[in-house]
Amino acid sequence: MKKYVCDVCGYVYDPEVGDPDNNIPAGTAFEDLPDDWECPLCSVGKDEFSPAEE
Questions:
Q1: Residue 45: burial class (beta carbons within 10 Å; 0-12, 13-18, 19+)
Q2: d(CA 23, CA 53)
Q3: Cα-Cα-Cα-Cα dihedral of 23, 30, 39, 10, to 10°?
Q4: For the chain, which has fewer Cβ within 10 Å, the N-terminal or C-terminal residue?
Q5: What does the alpha-carbon distance between residue 46 and residue 54 come to, in Å, rounded to a whole number?
Q6: Global pTM exceeds 0.90
Q7: What is the pLDDT of residues 23-39, one digit of tens each?
Q8: What is the SS3 string spanning 26-39?
């Protein structure tokens, strides 16, 4: 699964970790996040994320 980076603050969503603070379990692909999920650091939406460079 691919990591995604927030274009605003640089937070990296890692699907192997998920977002436990927001009840997103490990193993959740970025594409499977709820539409209303927001960056845990700066609160922008999923549309402000880009695939991370490998």
A1: exposed
A2: 26
A3: 130
A4: C
A5: 19
A6: yes
A7: 999 999 999 999 999 99
A8: CCCCHHHCCCCCEC
Q: In whole angstroms, what is the distance from residue 5 CA to residue 17 CA?
A: 14
- At 15-24, the pLDDT tens digits run 999 999 999 9
Query: DSSP letters along 1-54, please?
Result: ---EEETTT--EE-TTT-BGGGTB-TT--GGGS-TT-B-TTT--BGGGEEEPP-
Q: Two tokens at 42?
A: 């700066």
Are the C-beta atoms of residues 45 and 52 closer than 8 Å to each other? no
For residue 32, the one-letter residue type is D
